[in-house]
Amino acid sequence: MKFTLLRYATCSALFMVSIITLAVPAHPREQAASLDAMIGQMLLIGFHGSSPGGKDARRIASQIAKGQIGGVILMDRNIRSPRQVRALTSKFHSTGHPLTPIISVDQEGGLVQRLSAKKGFKAYPTARTVARLYTPEKARRIYKSMAQELAKAGFNLNYGPVLDLNLNRRNPVIGRLGRSYGADPERVVAYARAFISAHREAKVLTSVKHFPGHGSSWTDSHKRFVDLTKTWKDIEMEPYRALARDGAIDTLMVGHLYHPAFSTNQRLPATLTSTAIEGWVRGQLGFQGVVITDDLEMGAIRRYHNLQTTLIKAVQGGNDILMFSAAGADPKFVSKATQILRDAVNDGTIPRKRVTQAYARIKSLKQRFRPAKPWPIRAITGATQ
Fold first, then answer.
1. Given 3-state DSSP classes, what are the helix, strand and coil percentages for the chain, each rounded to the nearest 5?
2. Residue 31 confidence (pLDDT) above 50
3. Domain boundaries of the chain, sorted by first residue
4. What is the Cα–Cα distance from 114 to 130, expressed in whole angstroms?
């Protein structure tokens, strides 16, 4: 009986301690650290250099390890050979952070192929060539080879397939470069499905792009503001509707494209407005997964908005991951970006819920990544050859 009473008293005391602990508010520094961790996962950046031992790569690896950034994008400047790339991505994978970093790249085929033949990788045709010469089943075999090569190189996210309809063959960034599967949405969807399923089989996720559609424009968002008011058609939304219905979208990339239906009277591109993301992507398409911005250092953004405006509006708009393709060249960028977003949350400019939603989606996405296999130290040592 005494033992029973003693155990009851002990349990009661522990229960009261638990209640008191829950009632005590977290220390402000703990709250800031938690917020910083969530913000960190939203930042995806590019950097300079190709050697795993280079100063930029070491800094990026440290930022991943500390949870200050959630992932990277590799550009042409980072890629020299299959051996070197595998050593570089292995460095980022082996930081020890509990959330697998996103290691991403643009590998569509044709001119948009960062892992190119001249650097020792396989050559892949443009989307236009694939659709003209091959059936979707044959295309799937081509993309299976691509995805396996990406997985072997250490990538877990590929920015493709392109869902833009080829409505303007003179379009400088889609039509002229052969990046579209065609003007027929059903045809585009068939080849996009082949691309996505092949990558999923290799445990590499994809990002459909460029919402709401870049195929009808006359200008290039890499260089300047793109106004789709007179060219965009509702048919450009069909590939997104079809793939969203099928649950075939891993992540969705929003383009820096203006149209009144997706924006506000401020003439903001879709990337910076909730009308496009919360209204169309979440509401009308029903896609509740990770939304990624196109590169926020492109001319359509950088020429018209400063860093503070870009960051705040991108998060307010509903983006989960913010891409800056060259930000890693600035050692202070991550701390500046984090400070801007932290202050915006703390003063109510950005609802904290918006950040927690993004963080939850990113965590869920990363649970789908296959753990990268370790890379031998001797290979890393010789990676710059």
1. 50, 10, 40
2. no
3. 33-381
4. 18
In the predicted model, is pLDDT for residue 50 greater than 70?
Answer: yes
Contact (CB, 8 A) for 200 and 182? no
Residue type, 174: I
Q: Is the pLDDT of residue 383 over 80?
A: no
Q: Taking the CA atoms of the chain, what radius of gyration do you get in angstroms?
A: 23
| Structure-token pair, residue 34 | 């938690």
Residue with tokens 């991505």: 89
Q: Which residues contact 106 (CB under 8 A, 6 or more apart)?
A: 73, 112, 113, 114, 158, 159, 160
Contact 54, 80 (CB under 8 A): no
Which residues are 113's β-sheet partners?
A: 107
Choices 3.40.220.10, 3.20.20.300, 3.40.50.300, 3.30.230.10: CATH for 33-381: 3.20.20.300
Phi, psi of 128 (to 5 degrees): -60, -45
What b/e sequence results for 235-253 when a residue is b if at least 16 CB atoms lie within 10 Å of its CB, and e otherwise? ebbbbbbbbbeeebbbbbb
CA atoms of 114 and 121, how far apart (whole Å): 9
Residue among 296, 300, 304 nearest 341 (CA): 296
Closest Cα to residue 382, out of 51, 47, 48?
51
How many angstroms from the chain centroid is the CA of residue 285? Answer: 19
Give phi and psi for 258, each to the nearest 5: -100, 135
What span, in angstroms and rounded, lies between the C-alpha atoms of 144 and 197? Answer: 8
| Res 8 pLDDT > 60 | no
Quickly tell me which residue has 């500390």 as its tokens.
66
**Rounded to the nearest 5 degrees, what angle is found at the Cα of 306, between the Cα atoms of 305 and 307?**
120
